[in-house]
């Protein structure tokens, strides 16, 4: 149930989600680029049986998607289009346990990014977005 007394503030809550999520997608990309390096990320992908040629596209898509989400420019669509990337990340970390500080990282961070990306896709970009949320998706969802 949504507290109807607080609905005037919902656009600001969606904005907070959008800004946080966009920042997290960008930092996820920068971790690969600046800490592990592309060569290190390629080695990680290879160790999990994934093709190494996706290293640059993944980093660039995470950076671009995060920037679109931050700006609120087709942000909902960007959140949903990034889901396969994070599903791949979660599959790589699923065997490492719950905590991301475990050796090779756990699966809770990828799962959280998946969940928040779905929430953003459903909820919208909120206030101060460059493109209004209603125009971002071709289908309007009915609300209860």
Automatic annotation (TrEMBL):
Top-level taxon: Bacteria
Predominant place of localization: membrane
Keyword flag Zinc: no
Family: Belongs to the DoxX family.
Record keywords: Cell membrane, Membrane, Transmembrane, Transmembrane helix
Places the protein is found: Cell membrane
UniProt xrefs under Pfam families: DoxX
UniProt name for this protein: DoxX family protein
Membrane-crossing residue ranges in chain numbering: 21-41, 53-73, 80-99, 111-130
Membrane topology listed for this record: Multi-pass membrane protein
